[in-house]
Design brief:
single chain; alpha/beta; Rossmann fold; UDP-galactose 4-epimerase, domain 1; 2 domains; seven-stranded parallel β-sheet; three-stranded mixed β-sheet
């Protein structure tokens, strides 16, 4: 079985890049791709989600640090003098953000401020930051950077929209370049916060050929994007940060959407089972928009990036990595 191959830039974006959240679900893959392209990567992470830092190599320097530590961040930036920063560190698990809003705002907002101050002191002037498609107002159809307004409604999206204002103001004040990447729903193996897909798979596997599974609201549609495509997208934006506007925003999405019921049917098809869904009101989120479809055309036009993985490809890979039978199904051509 051959996996799809995600976009690969032709050349390294910078000689030396610091990646915050460098041990994370997305960050570890971005670190590996940057190193493979020939960058020296400083992978900085606090260990908050429990994933290990990348190993020390000639191309990768791991640092255990917390972005909330103002002096620690200044010391790290001063010591390693990166040409650019890819800022991925954040508390992004929605239930955690809602349960612990002070933590989310301290890490996401004040941590970002510590990073910006450290970059200014070290005269590092190039930043790419992970934002979220959730900052858009609730709207039908593809969400577009130029034509769709913002309207953050939960703790996480409020912190991300605040981050966009933070980095924009910093760029204007310091003469720097700052690009925000509005990321949509990332899926893949090894996500410490990825509970939906493993929960569904566990319920399907535990049943017979026509299992009945319990879920919350299955109507909301999401733009699911595979983690390798996400890492490649961030690296593509890094390679573009010196071009165009000093402040810019890009969607990182596939332009395709599925609701949870369709996702479940796809999993069932891959596993050779006809799945029935029972809705459990206790599983409904208090705030859950009905649609969140991104328009990736700007990123594709500017950088050449395209998503390589379909939702089916992603699910087959996740099931394989988790040890589930896939009934002979392979990735889509």
């Amino acid at each position: 079985m051959i996996d799809p191959v995600s976009f690969r830039p032709e050349r390294p974006p910078f000689n030396r890049v610091l990646v915050t959240g460098g041990a994370g679900f997305i960050g570890s893959r971005a670190v590996a791709l940057l190193a493979d392209l020939g960058c020296h990567v400083v992978a900085l992470d606090s260990g908050y989600v429990g994933l290990p830092l990348p190993k020390q190599t000639e191309s990768v320097t791991p640092i255990h640090a917390d972005i909330r530590d103002r002096e620690g961040m200044k010391a790290a930036l001063a010591e390693y003098c990166p040409d650019a920063v890819l800022h991925l560190a954040a508390v992004h698990h929605i239930p955690t953000c809602e349960r612990e809003p002070h933590l989310a705002m301290e890490v996401n907002i004040m941590g970002t401020q510590s990073l910006l101050e450290a970059m200014e002191a070290a005269e590092c002037r190039n930043l790419v930051m992970a934002s979220s498609g959730a900052v858009y107002r609730w709207d039908e159809g593809p969400l577009n950077e130029a034509t769709t307004g913002t309207g953050a409604t939960d703790v996480y999206s409020i912190t991300k929209l605040t981050n966009e204002y933070q980095i924009g103001g910093w760029a204007d004040r310091t003469g720097s370049r700052a690009h925000a990447v509005r990321l949509f729903n990332t899926i893949g193996s090894g996500d410490p916060n990825g509970h939906l897909i493993p929960d569904i798979l566990q319920q399907i596997a535990a049943g017979d050929d026509q299992p009945v599974i319990q879920l919350g609201n299955t109507a909301p549609k999401r733009d699911y994007i595979y983690v390798d495509d996400v890492a490649a997208g961030f690296v593509a934006v890094l390679g573009h940060v010196l071009e165009g506007e000093a402040r810019d925003i890009f969607n990182l999405s596939t332009g395709r959407e599925l609701n949870v019921a369709e996702l479940v049917k796809l999993m069932g098809d891959i596993m050779g089972k006809q799945v029935q869904i029972e809705s459990d009101p206790s599983r409904f989120r208090k705030i859950d928009r009905l649609q969140q479809l991104g328009d990736p055309s700007k990123l594709s036009a500017r950088t050449g990036w395209q998503p390589a993985w379909t939702a089916r490809d992603a699910l087959v890979a996740i099931m394989r990595d988790l040890g589930y039978a896939t009934n002979g199904v392979t990735q889509a051509a």
